[in-house]
Amino acid sequence: MLRSVLTAEPNFIDRKATRLNSDRPDLRAHELRTMYDALDAFWQDAGVDMAFADEPRDWLAEAEEKANPSAPTIPKMPPPPPPKPLGPTAPEQERLEDKKDGWPHRLDDFAGWWLSDASLDNAPAVRRVPPRGASRPPLMVIVAEPEETDRDLLLSGPDGQLMDAIERAMGYEPQAIYRASALPRRTPAADWEGLAAAGMGAVLRHHVSLVAPERLLVLSREALTLLSPDEFARDGTGFLGVGERQIPLIAAYPLDQMAARTGYKRIFWQRWLAFISDS
Predict the structure, then answer these.
(1) 189 in helix, strand or coil?
(2) How many domains does the chain contain in total?
(3) What is the distance between the alpha carbons of residues 222 and 261, in angstroms, rounded to a whole number?
(4) How many CA atoms does the CB half-sphere of 193 hold within 13 Å?
């Protein structure tokens, strides 16, 4: 092994380096072979018996070419197309804004339209969950989608329990906060870019205009992107222009992330206190 060679001969490396400059090719070849065997034994002793490379190689194709060099070259197959999102493929939907004239003009009509309108989702209108709350609330909360356990009531599971606790800590009366979701049903792996291109952001802004809240709390990066605030600062606050109004807005972590991390709740609460003092 290389370790034993080095232990037995302290000046082994220096002497070899000197001898490698020798003019005797037979001696040089012998010494190179000795060093190679020693290095090979060292790596074998370390458990490394294979060579690795970063770039992949088609070993089967190379072996076939060597075995039959006169065989015609088989053209390479093109790469497979990227997988489709599991959620609604929004680009295949009609542009939602093309049907804007049919959108509800009163908040009382919004929930029924949200549960039934086919243009909102390619999937059957099942498992859709309506928003809840009254118009002109002190705060409108927007999440990305309903909870997994939601059926007829939005935020009826663990996320909703945390939201109820936040509502009490904020000093609001029970159910004073309007609760809404950016999507009508829970949609794993939703195509958010496609939904934005289809006009789902315009639907969300229209929803906000019907609710007319004093403030907005957005608990989803995807929902915030759809909403597209007119102003948004690095501290997570901004404004959403609705008609002639500029509604103060704050964005925060999703409820499930705040539930799992105490630090996230603390950060949110500090930002919330600063937000309400400024707006």
Answers:
(1) coil
(2) 2
(3) 20
(4) 2
How confident is the model over 38-54, as pLDDT tens digits?
777 766 766 666 666 66
In a domain, 83, yes or no: no
From residue 257, how far is each of 14, 74, 103 by CA, in Å? 61, 51, 33
Q: Are 148 and 17 in the same domain?
A: no
Residues 156, 259, single domain; the answer is yes
Which residue type sits at 135? S
* 199 and 271, same domain (yes or no): yes
Same domain, yes or no, for 139 and 233? Answer: yes
Q: What value does the mean pLDDT of the chain take?
A: 82
Q: Say if residue 4 is in the same domain as residue 118.
A: no
List the domain range (segments joined by +) for residue 131: 101-278
Residues in the chain, overall count: 279
> H/E element holding 114?
helix 107-116
Same domain, 39 and 115: no
User: Against a cut of 0.90, is the pTM above it?
Assistant: no
Cβ atoms of 141 and 179 closer than 8 Å: yes
pLDDT digits (tens, 9 = 90+) for 174-223: 999 999 999 999 998 899 999 999 999 999 999 999 999 999 999 999 99
Q: How far apart are CA 115 and CA 129, in angstroms?
A: 7
DSSP 142-186: EESS--TT-SSSTT-SHHHHHHHHHHHHHTPPTT-SEEEESSSB-
- pLDDT by residue (tens digit) across 82-110? 666 655 554 455 678 777 888 999 999 99
Residue 81: pLDDT band with limits 50, 70, 90: confident
